[in-house]
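Supplementary notes for students who missed Thursday's class. We covered one full example, reproduced here. Read the sequence, then the structure, then the short commentary at the end.
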Amino acid sequence: MNCLPSLHSAFTFPGLRSRSIAWVSGLCCAALSSTAMGALISTDVDFTTVYTATVVPNSATPKWTLNLSQGSASVAGGVLVMNTPQSSGRYYSLSEETWDGGTATGSTIEFSLKVISTAEGATAGATQFMFSTGSKLYTFNFSETGVATQTGGYSVSYDTTSDFTVYRITLSEGGIASLYANHSSTPLIADYSGSDNSNNKISFGDSSNSIGGISHWEYVAFTNQGSFAPIPEPTSVSLLGVTLLLGARLCRRQSKR
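Structure (token representation):
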């Protein structure tokens, strides 16, 4: 993205040297581009396992197991496109050789997801994210209008379709899960205790007759070495505002010379 020409014309300060204009324009460009470069995996957590959508999950390292295998999945432009009808499913999973949700330190999961549409008759949503710990199962259903848990009655309205959302799930040492969106420190869903289950795995996609539709995934990352809530990041608008303020101050200094 080349913003320098447009920013040069939009932000021309009298008396400001061309080198300074280029400096200010470069900072503005960086601020505006920070969310236009695709998903960046958060750096505040040392994720031990990361899947990025350069190949389908069952061709990745580590290799995810393909379950049910109905519908379709393909990768294009760094995005995994999943499309499943309501009557059948398709989901990918990792077992306890890679995922160990029963650790005493808790877990942190992060993924970038955009819901495109929900299949006709899919009453619970377009796609799911699920994980279990050997004693509990936690399932989050994503529809075009929000997110809901499979059990426990938690449901929240949220725009899942306009753009990719970076979701983070934290699981505390005591087995309580919380769901966050786009680095907000306020959870969309909190205090979710899951349901009884003896499996120990992590999975995403469509594992239920009540789920179906088209969803886009950019990455899935996790660690079983701690529960880390998001650290809010400055928005591009805030960065742009700071940059313009610095530019105005530089302009005043230059004009006094």
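Commentary. The mean pLDDT is 84. Helices lie at 4-10, 18-33, 236-256. If anything here is unclear, bring it to office hours.
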